[in-house]
Amino acid sequence: MDDLLIEELLNRNRAQYLRDRMVSMVNPTFLQIYDLAYHKWGASNPSINLSNRQKMTTAWSVQDGINPLFSRITDCTKYAQFTGSLISDYDKKEAALVCLRRSQTFNQEYLDWKREANQTYAHLKLFF
């Protein structure tokens, strides 16, 4: 969410909107401006939430390493938490497994994972 908000703030029209509002405020604080920006552009809706969930399973390459995959899932989870649309550990685990299976590189590791007793997302991150 922070990245989206920053992206919006960097937009010239958005910056002009904030400047116009700041003129009418007496000694505006950072929190007042942040609150103004958040209420104007920080809202979420079901299509944005769905798009965020779909980002967890976007194309991932083994050459990128495993950390970017888990980082992307973590970023999507943080965004979802911020918007009040939580992502369960099960969904995070399944998203990671979809990406790993799609890579066709971790076939044996995937089968080994399926035999693991602990099937949590935290254990999946340690396993891979």
Structure description:
This protein has 128 residues and is mostly helical. The protein folds into 2 domains: 2-41, no CATH class; 46-127, no CATH class. Helices cover 71% and strands 0% of the residues. It is built from 8 helices and no strands. Helix 5 runs antiparallel to helix 6. It is elongated. 13% of the residues are buried. The model has no long low-confidence stretch (mean pLDDT 86).
Distance between the termini: 28 Å
- Percentage beta strand: under 5%
Task: State the order of secondary-structure elements, H for helix, E for strand.
Answer: HHHHHHHH
Tally of strands: 0
What is the 3D shape?
A: elongated
- Going by helix content, strand content and strand pairing, the class is mainly alpha
Helix content: over 70%
The unreliable regions are none
Rounded mean pLDDT is: 86
The major β-sheet equals: none
Total domains: 2
Q: Total number of helical segments?
A: 8
The radius of gyration is: 19 Å
